[in-house]
Amino acid sequence: MELRTMPEEQRKVKLPRNKGGHYRDFLDSIKSRQPTVAPVEVAHHSAIPGHLGLIAMLAGRKIKWDAAKELLVGDDEASKLLSREYRGPWKLG
Predict the structure, then answer these.
(1) Who contacts 21 (Cβ-Cβ below 8 Å, separation ≥6)?
(2) C-alpha separations of 33 from 15, 20, 25, 89 in Å
(3) How far apart are alpha carbons 21 and 18 in whole angstroms?
(4) With a threshold of 0.90, does the pTM exceed it?
(5) Is it the case that residue 9 has pLDDT exceeding 60?
């Protein structure tokens, strides 16, 4: 069925709403042990283009992104901008 022939009510996107926004939804999901309205993976993948744009701007050149590995390809200097040093005594496993 084409979009134009679908009834108006079926064309509307219906998303669950939480009056407290993402913060409240996150806290409610902890209490209820139910998934959040917006999965963390969606937020992660939504933030990547902005981060890559900033890295390219700071590096002053085009960068190449391997989406499967989530790594910059062939640019060790720009790759350093993907993370930062942790403040001691913290470290990532």
Answers:
(1) none
(2) 20, 17, 11, 31
(3) 5
(4) no
(5) yes
